[in-house]
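Chapter review. Work through the record for ARMD3 protein before attempting the end-of-chapter questions.
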Amino acid sequence: MAQTEKKGGLLRKSSASKKPLKEKVVLMYDEIFTTEDPSKCNPRFWEELFLMKVNLEYLEGKLEALDGEELMKIKDNINCLFQHCIQALGEEHPIRVVNALQTLCALIRGVHQKNKSTSGFDIINMLVGFDKAELCMKNLMESLDSLLCAEGSESLKSLCLKLLLCLVTVTDNISQNTILEYVMINSIFEAILQILSSPLSRREHGYDAVVLLALLVNYRKYESVNPYIVKLSIVDDEATLNGMGLVIAQALSEYNRQYKDKEEEHQTGFFSALTNMVGSMFIADADEKISVQTNEAILLALYEAVHLNRNFITVLAQSHPEMGLMTSPASPVPTTPVTPLGTTPPSSDVISSAELPLDADVQTSNLLITFLKYSSIVMQDTKDEHRLHSGKLCLIILTCIAEDQYANAFLHDDNMNFRVNLHRMPMRHRKKAADKNLPCRPLVCAVLDLMVEFIVTHMMKEFPMDLYVRCIQIVHKLLCYQKKCRVRLHYTWRELWSALINLLKFLMSNETVLLAKHNIFTLALMVVNLFNMFITYGDTFLPTPSSYDELYYEIIRMHQSFDNLYSMVLRLSTNAGQWKEPASKVTHALVNIRAIINHFNPKIESYAAVNHISQLSEDQVLEVVRSNYDTLTLKLQDGLDQYERYSEQHKEAAFFKELVRSISINVRKNLAFNTLSQELLLKEFSTIS
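Structure tokens for ARMD3 protein:
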């Protein structure tokens, strides 16, 4: 008997003399693509159609092959197909429901492709017709809501979420997607929350649910009242919020694990041996090799949760059972990498062993630690656009955290100490820190470490000014909390002071190049005012009196840098150029730093002369400092502990619009409706009544 092959909806026999035969479902699709009503000749046409295995490729291809005018001619049949799909969602037979869901996905995608052309007809009119749109979309949303909330098939729920993601991402700019008006009116918010609060549903669908929610929240968020924003902001159910936190933590943790695996692979490979042999001339290339695709979709979800919901802040520090001591998963966890910006969910709530703390007996992990590790990776290389966006979003999230009173309370809590192993960029002049030497400290120390690391590692030609400004603002907000609540944090402040002084030196040495692109005086003023904050209020939040002495020692030791900065800003503030005003602000801000330098330097020189010492030790300088505080006069500077609170709408709207567009395109590109094979579905629904 001749062997049969199947390709593109055709059944071909190996005998060349016979014409290829079409699948029955393809013949039925062809009938829909005529101007005649297919049910005229066959009253059971629609009933039979949804028992046939969907041919997504053929249906989408057929839609895309027609021009706008041809498609308008068969609009009635397309409307009819769409309406019958919605009716089929209410059927008891699961196979009909599955086929209806997949057909809807193909219809929406196919019609969207036509909408991108110059014909410009409306997607809603083409799919359902304006006259029936409201009722049809209401029925569709109610059916999807019922399927998501029912205790039935997980495969059906997965398809429902993919259909909803398809609906949301049908246009690049989701705010121009008029279909979403019906998703706003007929909310599926509670269904999403139900998925996140149930451990089983969360494991299967949590990732898609969280990405869907993040996208829905961004629909016309600045132009109208978005019910998803309102509802997300008032969620207070602990199980739901923890569930959402778990999904985000698992996705970020998966990224961290992939990066660590690649890093270890790289270090043990030939390239690493070669690098060690010839020095660190290949470090930049090495870093490129271990980059992993970022996941802005899940990061956006974390941002929206932190920004909109005060209750979610508690989730950041929540140690979940799944994120603590390792337990064996019931079934093997697939190791397929997460698609970049896609919708592939991590398959289990059980955290990977790579995410476990160094000493699992005494410490657990939490969402904030996982996020800080993620940030330390993506912020290493900001040359790549996705990483730049990710890095910026990480800093925006940290800004929201640094402004929150409750978040600051647990960040600075002495009873919540963690060992946070941040990733550090390979640099020629420093050795890689040994993980085992990391101390257990309050979480704010890890945030400050991350900021210091960024400051030190991004002084380069393509200077990321915006990220530096955000970085300094985060440090300032944390200091404001410490000053207000008199929190004496045991931190190596010298590392921060040194990083800030080196940043000022970089700005000065690259003045001409940087001024062509940036107002460097805004950043310089922020850095100088951080020092002013330490000088004015340091006695209220620095851990010991000797820490305050060390601050003065650093200022005196690096006086040349401050002198050079003063000379530069004085020169520009006395000219009538564009930098006159911003430079003069820095000149005024330097008044106390200059007073310290001018007061102590002569005293130190005098001490050295009297004692016949050419080079004073640190202890000797500190002795001079301590004995001469009384005669030092400083000016009280106003507003050092004040800051402008973060506002998305006024300052970040353009960034989020572009970010959401990028996420929408990538989610659409990576959606796979045929991930559920017909064989698996038939096995699951083998008991059709």
